[in-house]
């Protein structure tokens, strides 16, 4: 299948006119028809005829031209329904395109649809959705991860080439790990969030998900940069993610935090992370144990601050100006609004919200200290392989604890690259993440690229 190939390879064939955008689009539409009923990755599909018409007309101006993609349903799209997977917005038709959507469309990519997720980003399994859970293509009795389970499941089951995801506390990395694909959580502010439906504004980030680190580099090159519409987007110049991709990791020091490899980590996951560490050593890196002592507070910090911010962001959906009534929120989302409102209320603000902000600073300082000794940090993404349907949504505490290795990244605002690093004996994919200092996307992508030159986890696909 064409759609097994990377963007880089498809772009090359398109340029040489060996294939046309219509060939790729047709294949994707066929796959969606065949696989989506089993997976439930889509919330809203773009009309097939419109997709093919666009494919016929597309001009090949960039490596993304003619490449079919999907959006996690948190990005507003002009005249196309945007729900954030919630009944509150089930009939919301936006009037403009988010900046990231505008950039990808201007590069010539073809949008196939808006994808399933945990409502508002609240969750790690795509079960907290009003559109039915997304299933894991490697085992449909299991979840695809979350909150961006739909986009990840669609890529690995070959319904599209890439996706634009959103990561507040792991929502790009967790589903990438559990579906066996590659995803990049960028530095806070690296990509514009204008037109992205806010979950927790001091954590949210926009990033690419695809099959390989090289594809993520290609996409990032097009979407990164300052945006006059988003005051939180960074004015720092955009890196050159592509031309130095092959530089390798010779001499780089990769830290493995002992707190991320201890109690609570499934031995099957641990083993694969250690095997990956050995691969990095073979590639010329030096592996060192490091410590992030305050990471033990990360879940408490994140689950006070993110709900506080979401309680404020979701106040606008009052059923009068925007959206349907507030009774349409799911129990998980209501719980977060309640926790956040409580943590922000007079009398509790100092004890909870303010304390959590202080602890956040300690976590940032921990990372800064570690990054004086190493270039990157290697760790698991999730403590377990993909969970069974029902396992997380019915156990709110377990649901939060599953984010233990991902929320520190967003708490510190740093970037992280999720990569597939193996399979359990029963054939479930396992992922790892590399974290780096602020704006180290170039180095992260170089490391991911080097790893994917000597492994083939990223090319495997499920037999659906
Ligand atoms: N699972 C985390 C949460 O529920 C992260 C979600 C996200 O990154 N959007 O908050």
Which features characterize this protein?
15% strand; 464 residues; binds glutamine; globular; GatA; alpha/beta; 35% helix; two-stranded antiparallel ribbon; 14 helices; nucleotide-binding; ligase; Amidase signature (AS) enzymes; eleven-stranded mixed sheet; EC 6.3.5.7
Any overview of this molecule?
- Keywords: ATP-binding, Ligase, Nucleotide-binding, Protein biosynthesis, Transferase.
- Its EC number is 6.3.5.7.
- By secondary structure, this protein is α/β, with parallel strands linked by helices.
- The chain contains 14 helices and 13 strands.
- A hairpin with a 2-residue loop joins strand 4 and strand 5.
- The two termini are 15 Å apart.
- The mean pLDDT is 97.
- It binds glutamine (GLN).
- Glutamine is lined by residues 121-124, 147, 167-171, 199, 306, 403.
Structural class: alpha/beta
Overall pLDDT confidence = 97
Count up the domains.
Answer: 1
Q: Could you tell me the strand content as a percent range? A: 5-15%
User: N-to-C SSE series?
Assistant: HHEHEHEEEHEHEEHEHEHHHEHHEEH
Q: What is the oligomeric state here?
A: single chain
CATH superfamily heading: Amidase signature (AS) domain
Largest sheet: 11 strands, mixed
CATH architecture: Alpha-Beta Complex
Low-confidence stretches: none
Helix content: 25-40%
| Number of β-strand runs | 13
Which small compounds were modeled alongside the protein? glutamine
CATH topology: Amidase signature (AS) enzymes
Q: Enumerate how many helices there are, as a single number.
A: 14
Rg, alpha carbons: 20 Å
Could you give the distance between the termini? 15 Å
Strand order of the largest sheet: 1-3-2-6-8-7-12-13-11-9-10
Give the overall form.
globular
Overall CATH class: Alpha Beta
